[in-house]
Amino acid sequence: MKQPESIARPEGKLAVLLPGLGAVSTTFVAGVCLARKALAEPFGSLTQMGTVRLGKRTDNRVPRISELVPLASLHDLEFGAWDLFPDDAYEAATHARVLDQFHLARVRDELSTISPMKAVFYPEYVKRLQGTHVKQEKTKADMVDALREDIKRFVTQRRCSRAVAVWCGSTETYIEPGAVHQSIQSFEEGLKSNDPTISNSMIYAWACLKEGVPYANGAPNLSLDFPAAIELARQTETPIAGKDFKTGQTLMKTLLAPGFKARMLGVTGWFSTNILGNRDGEVLDDPDNFRTKEVSKLGVLEQILQPSVYPQLYGNLYHKVRINYYPPRGDSKEGWDNIDIVGWLGYPMQIKVDFLCRDSILAAPIVLDLTLFLDLAKRAGFRGVQEWLSFYFKSPMVASGLYPEHDLFIQLMKLKNTLRWMVGEDLITHLGNEYYD
């Protein structure tokens, strides 16, 4: 990336377009509406609560991120969505049962005005759902055109100056990149011929890229993590990021694994199971959809622990991941881990983690941060994969030939150093002249 000479100010309203108006989207939107009214705090959001140290520690310069870089105001966000069910955001939030009526009642008027546009939905990619509020077009190319019209109409009607999109829909069946994904021309030919390896999320991503709308992929779907989409993003000067929000169990892995490695403690086994009862849990109950999530979750430890570099410590690691659909649990997911570690002289020890988390509560601030940071990136003239946003993802997208960084603390350092660099501040390198933390 080239350092921006200047960053355009966030003038006017920002359209926030959400494919999927389910638990994550409605929790995000309701939370922003509550925060705008000072009725709740946006805990978990770096853009709203995080700080960045500048210069030496003795300088005492620690501004909020929102004071360091020109982010859009929460009051300037205009929410739009697509969904395969016609429920407005209030009805969808009530059905999701993440937030209680104490909060929903206070923003009911705002939520009730957000009615989803008809979704692009081919059921073969999400077998456990049957949509009733869907577009009817002849080809996938026609679907892209219909979405582009939706985007332009929403931006015009809501008098927005620009837009950002964040995929908050379901996990799709596992798809590997093929010939159709290799170039813009081959992908557009595939759209016209209804190529079966072009999924719902790819159609949304392609439409957004064609319109120059920054796009983040919150699911493990292939979506835009393939050469044609990356090429189009660079051609249209569009920032992109993904994939798969780092929320519950994987968040814990990226916190714990770097600690084990830092202390040179061995790990022989890591068994993870999840109990989840929301729409995501129902979708992941299908083996083809679970395969997509499994690939996303399994790659984390391999990169952090580097078994090829430390074969004695991690060369025989057995890593198993399970997801179990359990309707009574709802959105309050339980992530349980058994970790077998090895210490001095090879003596075994165990760690057990039982994370009783709320999936959408953890995901909502990620959606907010990605919205504001991608809008910032667009105004700064960035394009293509935004690796500095890896902090938010289980399977971060990276430039061709590079491996993704999964260590949460390295990811945070990269994010904050990118913000420093954007505005011409010195990077924190921990070398020389009191730069040690």
Distance between the terminal alpha carbons, to the nearest Å? Answer: 27 Å
Radius of gyration: 21 Å
Q: Mind describing the biggest β-sheet?
A: 7 strands, parallel
CATH topology of the largest domain: Rossmann fold
Name the helicity range: 25-40%
Q: What's the total count of β strands?
A: 11
Helix and strand composition category: alpha/beta
Shape: globular
Strand content: 15-25%
Can you give the mean pLDDT? 92
**Order of strands in the sheet with most strands:** 3-2-1-4-5-6-11
The number of helices is 16
Level-2 CATH architecture of the largest domain = 3-Layer(aba) Sandwich
Order of H and E elements: EHHHEHHHEHEHHEHEHEHHHEEEHEH
What does this structure look like?
By secondary structure, the chain is an alpha/beta fold. The chain has two domains: 296 residues, Rossmann fold, CATH 3.40.50.720; 108 residues, 2-Layer Sandwich (Dihydrodipicolinate Reductase, domain 2). The protein has 16 helices and eleven strands. Strand 9 and strand 10 form a beta hairpin. Helix 1 crosses helix 4 and helix 8 packs across helix 10. The protein is globular and about 65 Å long.
Q: How would the blueprint of this fold be written?
A:
Blueprint: E1 13-19, H1 23-36, H2 46-49, H3 65-68, E2 77-83, H4 89-96, H5 101-104, H6 108-112, E3 117-118, H7 140-157, E4 160-167, H8 184-192, H9 200-210, E5 215-217, H10 227-235, E6 239-242, H11 249-262, E7 266-276, H12 279-284, H13 287-305, H14 311-314, E8 318-325, E9 334-342, E10 348-356, H15 359-379, E11 384-385, H16 408-422
Helix pairs in contact: 1-4, 1-15, 7-8, 7-9, 8-10, 11-13
